[in-house]
Design a protein that fits this description.
The protein is α/β, with parallel strands linked by helices. The chain has three domains: 2-143 and 270-334, FAD/NAD(P)-binding domain (3-Layer(bba) Sandwich), CATH 3.50.50; 149-268, FAD/NAD(P)-binding domain (3-Layer(bba) Sandwich); 347-464, Enolase-like, domain 1. It is 32% helix and 25% strand. It is built from 14 helices and 22 strands. The protein has helices spanning 15-26, 42-46, 48-66, 81-104, 149-152, 161-164, 181-192, 212-225, 318-334, 363-369, 385-389, 418-430, 435-439, 450-464, and strands spanning 2-11, 31-35, 111-113, 116-120, 123-126, 130-139, 143-145, 158-159, 173-177, 196-200, 227-229, 233-240, 243-249, 255-260, 262-265, 269-271, 305-307, 347-350, 355-360, 374-380, 396-402, 408-415. A hairpin with a 4-residue loop joins β18 and β19. It is globular and about 70 Å long.
Length: 480
């Protein structure tokens, strides 16, 4: 076994790891980048980019199906599943190629392949071939989709989102377990491409939403198009012929068994921290085994170990992974003189239709930390002018602001163009704008953003007319 010595060792070559490596080397430190799997980020290979390729195909199919409502008739619609998946794989491979090219540009002596495991706070063992002694470390090992053992036992037709993007053809049917972002995005896209889809949700959640009024609108919007069964759990999966028998149980205890080609497990992801030998580092860890860390510096305790990306389970999104990786790499280079880095306003988008966006402080967070101190404004998109013009008039936006200052705090929405509205509002939030300052901004006509102005006007009214002990939360006051 050979021994290598370095100043910084980065474990994981995904978005967070690559960014950390570049930051540490820019900081003048000798850095090793360790990867146990293939190069190419989760986003490029099996995440945000291939999923958007599938969604783009679904949007094209849906546009043809929706055209008659405008008086436009395109004739018979034919979906070529092989051609759909061929484009998804081809473009996916192109995006992955860009990432691999970047890694290939790193010096060969900086890259180590194999599984890393801590032997001590200053030592890593890579498989059975290399011992690395380092002064500082960045953990950027990503996450893995969760599949319960009892489901996995039913065979290869129980899949995760990773497998979807390697299909050669679209299946006849699929059951989706989970009403989070991944489950709803893929479930709706596949349904629009002619696949029989049923989505099962253990509770009533929809993507990342927590505002009860927005959630109610979102559930109805999803159920208008999809076979979504809320408060229904998958209780048994068995291989049957060329597919699976999936048994579900609803809130009343009623069970139902149906046959599907596949079961997609979209119930969450687990941080890849359990086989790293963290018990040998002396780090304090939480109930999930994740080291406790400072969210501004990404430093684990007072150690020379930093963590970034999906491995810390804070905000599992590519922009966050990049920001965290940069902070972790910068601080690994300058340790022990660590500094707080730029953490941007939270922004999460689900590319369903209607789209879903949350930004800034969520309703749930405000009810916990701002109870009685924030106001809510809202708008429905049902009668919003541009939305009706486009026949995309579904959804609701709720916006939040602080009573004392009028400062904009965040928003939750489902509706048309949410990916763009989410950006505008997150910029306002990060800039610390007040509601009155936001209403001074230009609004063109006719645009969907006029709905934002309506919601802000309502919010301004609520701020100006709030009762002395007003509480926006529906569930944060003491019970009888």
């Amino acid at each position: 076994m050979k021994t290598l010595r370095t100043e910084v060792a980065v474990i994981g070559a995904g978005t967070a790891g690559m960014t950390a490596y570049r930051a540490a080397t820019t900081g003048g430190k000798k850095t090793l980048l360790i990867e146990s799997h293939v190069y190419g980020t989760t986003c490029a290979r099996v995440g945000c980019m291939p999923s958007k390729l599938l969604i783009a195909a679904a949007e094209a199919a849906h546009a043809l199906q929706a055209a008659p409502a405008f008086g436009v008739h395109a004739g018979e619609v034919r979906i070529d599943g092989k051609a759909v998946m061929a484009r998804v794989r081809s473009e996916r491979d192109r995006f992955v190629g860009f990432v691999v090219d970047s890694v290939n540009g790193y010096p060969a002596e900086d890259k180590i392949h194999g599984h890393a495991r801590f032997l001590s706070p200053t030592q890593l063992q890579i498989d059975e071939h290399t011992l690395i002694e380092a002064e500082r470390f960045v953990i950027a090992t990503g996450s893995t989709p969760i599949v319960p053992d009892e489901w996995r036992a039913a065979g290869p037709r129980v899949i995760t989102s990773d497998e979807v993007f390697y299909w050669d053809e679209l299946p006849e049917s699929i059951a989706v377990a989970g009403t989070g972002v991944i489950g709803l995005e893929l479930g709706q896209a596949l349904a629009r491409l002619g696949v029989r889809v049923t989505v099962f949700g253990r509770g009533g959640s929809v993507a990342q939403l927590s505002d009860p009024e927005v959630l109610d609108v979102a559930r109805r919007a999803m159920a208008d198009e999809l076979d979504v069964r809320f408060k229904t759990r998958v209780v048994h999966v068995a291989q049957q012929g060329d597919g699976l028998d999936v048994t579900s149980e609803d809130a009343s205890g009623q069970r139902r068994t149906e046959h599907f080609s596949y079961l997609l497990s979209a119930i969450g992801r687990r941080p890849n921290v359990h086989k790293l030998g963290l018990e040998n580092t002396g780090l304090e860890r939480d109930h999930q085994g994740i080291p406790l860390y400072d969210k501004q510096t990404m430093q684990c305790g007072s150690s020379a170990i930093f963590i970034a990306g999906d491995a810390d389970n804070e905000r599992p999104q590519l922009p966050e992974a990049a920001d965290q990786g940069r902070i972790a790499g910068d601080n690994a280079a300058r340790y022990p003189a660590v500094q707080a880095g730029l953490r941007r306003t939270p922004l999460t988008i689900a590319f369903t239709e209607p789209q879903i966006a949350t930004l800034g402080a969520s309703y749930e967070e405000l009810c916990a930390s701002y109870a009685g101190r924030f106001a809510v404004g809202k708008v429905s998109f049902e009668n919003q002018g541009r939305s009706r013009v486009m026949l995309q008039n579904k959804g609701m936006l709720r916006v939040y602001a602080e009573h004392a200052t009028g400062r904009f705090l965040g928003a939750e929405m489902i509706g048309p163009r949410a990916e763009h509205i989410g950006h505008l509002l997150s910029w306002a939030c990060q800039a610390g704008l007040t509601v009155s300052a936001m209403l001074d901004m230009p609004f063109y006509h006719p645009v969907v953003e006029e709905g934002v102005r309506t919601a802000l006007r309502d919010l301004a009214h609520q701020l100006a007319n709030a009762p002395a002990h007003d509480c926006a939360c529906v569930d944060c006051t003491p019970g009888p």
